[in-house]
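Re: [ENG-882] Designed sequences occasionally contain unexpected residues at chain ends

Forwarding the minimal case from QA. Structure tokens:
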């Protein structure tokens, strides 16, 4: 009986070690890809296909050399909220275009859409989440958005900032923090 318990222990320990090695390797590979993206990433446009606030995920699609890709990225919903159809800059590795990262600091204004501007009704920075919540009104409809604050940007609520939005989709607005 002790030999049987010893064999069972070795089997469980082996499975645990293999699992730890697998997850460790995946974490290391992801870290390497992120570092490589920062260094060698090529820019493309990503179109938001879905935003799941409950799961905290954004699904985007992008096309590289005629081939379509889809990326699901986890996000902190207190940090950013996006809408279907919005476009953001995306960095991808030329040799592995499926390895990509969405740059939520860089919205892309699509050619052919009319962009207008207005002043926000309020701006509420949340430094704990490094994000800003703002509201604006278009044709008696109030819209509220949350967007990340780029590193190095300090929001002074006494200053006037502009919200740029699509006239056809006024819910898609970005606070200009320049």
């Amino acid at each position: 009986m002790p030999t049987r318990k010893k064999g069972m222990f070795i089997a469980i320990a082996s499975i645990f070690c293999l699992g730890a090695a697998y997850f460790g390797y995946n974490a290391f590979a992801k870290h390497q890809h992120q570092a490589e993206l920062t260094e060698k990433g090529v820019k493309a446009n990503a179109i938001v296909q879905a935003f799941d606030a409950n799961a905290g995920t954004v699904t985007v699609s992008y096309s590289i050399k005629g081939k379509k890709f889809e990326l699901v990225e986890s996000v902190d919903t207190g940090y950013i909220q996006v809408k279907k159809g919005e476009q953001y800059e995306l960095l991808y590795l030329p040799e592995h275009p499926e390895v990509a990262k969405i740059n939520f600091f860089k919205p892309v204004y699509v050619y052919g859409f009319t962009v207008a501007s207005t002043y926000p009704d309020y701006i509420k920075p949340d430094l704990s989440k490094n994000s800003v919540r703002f509201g604006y009104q278009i044709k008696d409809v109030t819209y509220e958005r949350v967007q990340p604050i780029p590193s190095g940007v300090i929001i002074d609520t006494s200053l006037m900032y502009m919200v740029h939005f699509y006239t056809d989709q006024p819910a898609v607005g970005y606070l200009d923090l320049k």
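QA comment: On inspection the terminal residues look reasonable. Residues 25-31 have pLDDT under 50 and may be disordered. Proposing we downgrade this to a documentation issue.
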